[in-house]
Amino acid sequence: MKKHIVVLTGAGVSAESGFATFRDTGGLWEQYDVNDVASIEGWYRNRQLVLDFYNQRRAQLKEAKPNAAHEAIAGLEKDYNVDVITQNVDNLHERAGSTRVLHLHGELTKVRPENGIYDRTASEAEVIDVGYRPVVLGDLAPNGSQLRPHIVFFGEAVPNIEKAINLVEKADVLLIVGSSLQVYPAAGLYRYAPNGCPIYVIDPKSVPLADPRVTFIQDVATKGMAQFMSLAPWN
Ligand code: OAD
Fold first, then answer.
1. Residues of the chain with pLDDT > 90: what percent?
2. Ligand 1 pocket: which of 41, 87, 223 to mutate (most atoms within 8 A of CB)
3. Ligand 1 and 219: CB distance under 6 A
4. What is the distance between the alpha carbons of residues 51 and 110, in angstroms, rounded to a whole number?
5. Neighbours of 18 (CB within 10 A)
6. Percent helix / strand / coil, the chain, rounded to 5
7. pLDDT in tens, 1-22
8. Is ligand 1 within 6 A of the CB of residue 27?
9. The model scores a pTM over 0.85
10. What is the pLDDT of residue 85?
């Protein structure tokens, strides 16, 4: 039976594709106030600002390409049973060829009604794929309410967290790439890895993760993935 590798990714995996991370120097949360553009209160205060922020990021995504780290993660599927859990709202894992990608914080290319069923039921029935197109005030969903980004704002629940926990609980190997592990509940997911499950963390900075199962690969995602592939113990 193929080993099950669960890969948890954060903004760092897309950094080499030209996407600024959030909390590094020069990161997005230095340029924007997270409370303005990524919180539910911010949305109701100034929808235009929030729509503009995600319109810009959607346009940027159209031009971006998956990098060698996304490709190496997709390539794992040749020999392993792989699930990717990503905090990223880009689609670079999918474009690199990963077939099972669970988005914890939503997806840039999708929108949904502001007053829809998703927030109560997590049903994706009203979620609309807009591709890379901008969304403006007055763009309405079939139910008549304003379309909003399909993004988990701060202050909102993370509907996919249960699915993510179920995957991590069944991992033979857990690989974490490019996340500062500061945002919960995603940051606590590694705790659900079974006893004895090796955990690899790829990040150029040291990530505060005090767990005896952890092996750190302190490098950028592309180089770190090459090192991960060359390590034997999880094979
Ligand atoms: P952060 O910006 O908090 O952390 C990015 C991590 O990537 C840091 O640990 C960096 O050291 C690392 N990094 C930088 N360059 C890298 C590279 N080339 N290769 C590998 N790693 C690199 O981003 P996240 O942990 O993903 O949520 O942030 C989690 C959530 O906070 C995001 O999903 C977003 C944000 O607010 C929402 O918007 C809902």
1. 85
2. 87
3. no
4. 12
5. 12
6. 35, 20, 45
7. 899 999 999 999 999 999 989 9
8. yes
9. yes
10. 98
Mutate which of 73, 183, 206 for ligand 1? The one with the most ligand atoms within 8 Å of its CB, which is 183
> Out of 8-17, 48-57, 112-121, 185-194, which region has the weakest mean confidence (pLDDT)?
112-121
DSSP 98-123: -S-EEESSEEEEEEEETTSSHHHH--
Q: Would you say the CB of residue 37 lies under 6 angstroms from ligand 1?
A: no
Mean pLDDT of all residues belonging to the chain: 94
Token pair in block for residue 206: 């040291």
- The protein residue with its alpha carbon nearest to ligand 1, atom 37, reads 105
Per residue in 151-199, pLDDT (tens digit) is 999 999 999 999 999 999 999 999 999 999 999 999 999 999 999 999 9
- CA quadruple 201, 204, 206, 208: dihedral, nearest 10: -50
Q: Distances in Å between the alpha carbon of 208 and those of 79, 178, 181, 199, 222?
A: 31, 13, 8, 13, 21
12 lines ligand 1 (CB under 6 A): yes
Ligand 1 center to residue 14 CA distance, Å? 9
- The stretch 74-82 carries a mean pLDDT of 95
17 in contact with ligand 1, CB cutoff 6 A: no
Q: What is the pLDDT of residue 223?
A: 98
Question: Catalytic positions, please?
Answer: 105
